[in-house]
Write a structure and sequence with these properties.
alpha/beta, Rossmann fold, Hypothetical Protein Tm841, Chain: A,domain 3, 2 domains, six-stranded mixed sheet, four-stranded parallel sheet, 11 helices, globular, DegV_C, lipid binding, DegV family protein, DegV_domain_contain
């Protein structure tokens, strides 16, 4: 059995890694007025953050089902089955698009997987699936491993400005208002597929310190973990944070990633996150 691995652009896996591991990617889009850009294809994270400084905050859109069908049909010429791993179905219809397309294509068996999360933490599932597929594992074996990963996979993030989440409908107006009045930097996480507040913390520094405490609790047993620092146009801060964390947790392998255009639209510049999973 030959298994293909598909994900969407919000996993923010660099092109060279996608090419090396044979990962196929379907882009989501950001829409500035009448202009639509596919993220990771037509607009980069850097150009997006430069653009939003001078324009209205864009809207975002999921890939059309037809794009999924086209990709799955193309893959059917070379593969027997495909695992399609997507951002949380609680914040986007992308996963449902993969489900619909999978039920409509005939020559390939599609296994959609709801990561129930996003960004490079979603990417951890994708990388694992791609490595297993390359080693000749079938979709059933890979899906079983992804469900096992779900038990130890966590992510927390801090937003600088709640108005983005509120405007995008990802957080209620009341929560946004209370947060901004108190100058709160809420720690957020995914719960039941949705972005919800985890704790309310007064300052950015304390919020990031609390995320590190949560990592410490997760990795205190000494088992090897992989972790990712995710930033919204704060690369230098991410580099410094990585150096500190590597010193503190030598048994954890850290990488740096970013909140790209689609997720950056909802979280806003300055957001920072940390996600991890047991190896």
């Amino acid at each position: 059995m030959k298994t293909a691995v598909v994900t969407d652009s919000t996993a923010y896996i660099p092109l060279e890694i996608r090419e090396k591991l044979n990962i196929h990617m379907i882009p989501l889009s950001v829409i500035f007025g009448n202009e639509t850009y596919q993220e990771e294809v037509e607009i980069t994270a850097d150009s997006f953050y430069a653009e939003v400084k001078t324009k209205e905050l864009p809207t975002t859109s999921q890939p059309p089902v037809g794009e999924f069908m086209e990709l799955f049909e193309k893959l059917s010429k070379e593969y027997d089955e495909v695992i399609s791993i997507h951002l949380s179905s609680g914040i986007s219809g992308t996963f449902q698009g993969a489900v619909s397309a999978g039920s409509l294509v005939e020559d390939i068996k599609v296994f959609p997987f709801d990561s129930e999360i996003s960004c490079m933490v979603q990417g951890f599932y994708v990388l694992e699936a791609a490595e297993m597929a390359a080693a000749g594992k079938n979709a059933a074996e890979i899906m079983e491993r992804l469900e096992e990963m779900r038990k130890t996979l966590k992510a927390y993030f801090m937003v600088d400005d709640l108005s983005h989440l509120q405007r995008g409908g990802r957080l209620s107006s009341a929560q946004a208002l209370i947060g901004s009045l108190l100058q709160v930097k809420p720690l957020l996480h995914f719960e039941n597929k949705l972005i919800v507040p985890f704790e309310k913390i007064r300052t950015r520094k304390k919020a990031m310190k609390r995320i590190v405490e949560l990592l410490g609790e997760a990795v205190k047993g000494g088992e090897p973990h992989r972790a990712v620092i995710i930033h919204a146009n704060r690369e230098q801060e991410a580099i410094e944070w990585k150096a500190e964390l590597e010193e503190q947790y030598p048994h954890v392998e850290f990488v740096i990633s970013y909140f790209g255009p689609v997720i950056g639209t909802h979280l806003g510049e300055g957001s920072m996150g940390l996600g991890w999973v047991k190896k």
